[in-house]
Amino acid sequence: MSLEWRGAAVAPDDEMPSPESWDPVSVPGRPEQFAGAEAVAYETTFSDPRDESDAHALLVLNGTYAHTRVWCNGDLLTEHDAYFEPLRVRLPESEEYRVVVECRAPEDRFGGLHATDQLPPERSVPGIWWDASLETRPDPCVSELSVRPQVTGDDPEDAAVEVSATVLTEDPLDDRITLSLRPEGDVRGGGMMDRARVSTDDETATVSYTMDVRDPSLWWPHDRGEQSRYVLRAKLGDDEHSVTTGLRTVSYDDGLRVNGEDVPVRGVTLRDPTPEDVARAVDANANLVRIRAQGTPPEVARACDDHGVLLWQDLPLSGPGSFDSDRGTDLAERLDETYAEHPSFATVGIHDEPVRSYADGLGSGFLDRLRFRWRAWRASYDDADAESVASAVDTVPTFPVVGPPGIAPDGATLYPGWRYGDAADLPWLCSQFNVGGVVAGFGAGALGTAEPNDSPGFDRDCHDRHVDGGLDASQAYQAGVVREVAETLRQRNAPLIIVDSLRDLGDAGMGLLAADGTEKTAFGALADSYEPTQVVLSDSTPGERDIVVIHDRPEKADLTVEWDCNGDREQAEHTVGPFARVTVDTLALSPGDNVTLAVTDGETVVKNEYRINE
User: Fold this and answer.
1) Do residue 218 and residue 258 come from a single domain?
2) Are residues 445 and 564 in the same domain?
3) Of the candidates 9, 253, 259, 332, which lies 20 to 30 Å from 148 by C-alpha distance?
4) Are 402 and 344 members of one domain?
5) What integer pLDDT is reported at residue 156 of this predicted model?
């Protein structure tokens, strides 16, 4: 049942909001007229939605940012403080309802990216962002259903699904819930059915049960296999509830492993995630999206499941400053529980960019490198609280600290060619600070329009230090940095790399796409650099440069490699092993040379073009 809502900016206090006037608003949504408000109240009225077969009415809210209170007919029903976790409110008996929902801006450090200047104010309006609906149910009913898939040990045949069902009942209950698990679509394997007892004198009860899965079909990233999934249904009397999940394992040991197999990660950051962005990530040859310092909307998590894209889910914690580790631990446990049903759920980051950027504007010279080392040495971060919070996540690997070199991050953010130095400084950064294995952010910014307005997350001064020209020069520079850093990291066998970011939020930004999804020059450059099998130059500057084949697939391949330098074309046949790096030949390159490289396995042709500059 859809609802009509009104909203008003309010001054938060302990009482139910009573603004002088209300404005019609769209819910779910982020009403721009309330941008910058500390708290926003939302009101809806409706008649009893139940018919003769219904006993319960539930208000379902998803994405209530960030601290929420709900009143019904003047009575406070509940409070909520984790917007990534669904809020389901059982409504009391009444013929008419007036519901007031107050959403407050973060009252602690856990507002994530929405509590920074990295997003425009209109994206951070306190509100009901993702879903708002009414549900009616018979008695008894399953009001909530969650699953946690399990594949234990190294044997994929040893699989199970942990089920948790919340039961509502008006009378004492002694019954059984029927649980069925069936493959979705054309997935091989049979279905399973079992019954779990529920016996209670209370109005609510939680039933926990583990179902073994026979002959399981596993979920894989899109570049490694099929996205097999299962539908879990819980039936109690006349009521039925279902959830879709998938079976897989994820671990990290010098590289991400899915279902026991190495998966070199090529990722993109989403700062304002949409399902369309997940499809765009696949177009860029990415197999992971990092949702930076914020919750993932359910439709985006489902899109990751559908498209076979791994999900790096951050805790909403960004920027310098201490935080309450107990609060962080509670949120981490709830975040883990919320996203565990998604087979794409692959890892969790805890504290994003915990120190201020310390090297902006430094160049590549000897003195600049000394200054970089000095500033990095002075940068300090005590990771004890982040490590403690990370230990609360038990379903997927974690990266407690994501930040710049110098603080021993678990995931490094490296911006040579943008915040400091040149893209060619990347090898020095990696060796000097022992980073470059897990790179949680790299890239450069660019204009998205010829005459941009101020854009959140875009450093115009930084841009102008590197670019002397308009739109074309700006996008060409970004493409060059993204390409060189991506190819260098892949040549170095970095197991997990993520470009920052996929799409702009304004007229300019770090995105490879403009805000409307239009491709910048860097999008094609990244798609080429992220090809699983690729051929690149070891360096695109004058000198003796290797032609290197990168093969990030688990099977060996017979490849034909071709290169053309100023019209002089040559070709060679090579057999490469799994996850191989092979030097094919060496070219003596001079300024102004044009080089075209191509590699094919007989089915797919991948091409790379270079112009050699000083």
Assistant:
1) no
2) no
3) 253
4) yes
5) 63
* pLDDT beneath 70: ranges in the chain: 1, 153-156, 187-190
Is the same domain home to 403 and 551? no
Per-residue confidence (pLDDT) for residue 185, from 0 to 100: 77
For Cα atoms 324, 301, 498, give the angle at the middle one, nearest 5 degrees: 75
**Amino acid identity, residue 403?**
G
pLDDT for position 163: 96
> Which stretch of DSSP H or E encloses residue 294?
none
Q: What residue ranges in 438-593 does DSSP mark as E strands?
A: 438-442, 446-447, 496-499, 508-509, 533-537, 543-551, 557-565, 568-576, 580-589
- What angle (nearest 5°) sits at the alpha carbon of residue 53, between those of residues 49 and 56? 55
CB-CB contact of 485 with 423 (8 Å): yes
Distance CA 601, CA 289 (A): 28
| Contact yes or no for 191/182 (Cβ under 8 A) | yes
Tell me the backbone φ, ψ of residue 129, rounded to 5 degrees: -85, -35
3-state class percentages of the chain: helix first, strand second, coil last, to nearest 5: 20, 40, 40
Secondary structure class of 442 (helix, strand, coil)? strand
Answer yes or no: are the C-beta atoms of 70 and 77 closer than 8 Å: yes
Radius of gyration over every alpha carbon of the chain, rounded to an integer in angstroms: 26
- The position carrying tokens 């019904």 is 72
Q: Is residue 90 located within the same domain as residue 157? A: no
Q: Nearest CA to 296 among 339, 249, 327, 326? A: 339
Q: Which residues pair with 166 in a beta bridge?
A: 144, 206
pLDDT, residue 454, reads: 84
Quick one: pLDDT at residue 2? 79
pLDDT at 214: 86
Q: What is the mean pLDDT of the chain?
A: 95
Indicate the number of domains in the chain.
4
Q: How confident is the model at residue 158, as a pLDDT? A: 82
Query: Do 90 and 229 sit in the same domain of this protein?
Result: no
Range of the domain at 292: 253-528
> Which has the closest alpha carbon to 287: 611, 562, 526, 586?
526
Q: CB under 8 Å to 494, separation ≥6 — which residues? A: 436, 437, 438, 439
Instruction: Give residues with Cβ within 8 angstroms of 516, minimum separation 6.
Output: none
- Model pLDDT, residue 189: 62
CATH number at residue 272: 3.20.20.80
Place of tokens 């509670």: 330
Residues 457 and 548 in one domain: no
For residue 393, give the 3-state DSSP assignment.
coil
Torsion angle (degrees, nearest 10) of CA 109, 115, 117, 122:
180
Q: What is the pLDDT of residue 151?
A: 87
Long-range residue pairs from 566-574, CB within 8 A, at least 24 positions apart, any chain: 566/593, 566/594, 566/595, 574/549
497 and 371, same structural domain?
yes
Residue 352: what pLDDT? 98
Q: Of the residues 136, 168, 202, which one is the last residue of a structural domain?
A: 136
Q: What b/e sequence results for 81-109 when a residue is b if at least 16 CB atoms lie within 10 Å of its CB, and e otherwise? A: bbbbbbbebbbeeeeebebbbbbbbbeeb
Instruction: Report yes or no on whether pTM surpasses 0.90.
Output: yes
Number of Cβ within a 10 Å radius of residue 27: 22
For 576-587, the three-class secondary structure string (H helix, E strand, C coil) is: ECCCEEEEEEEE
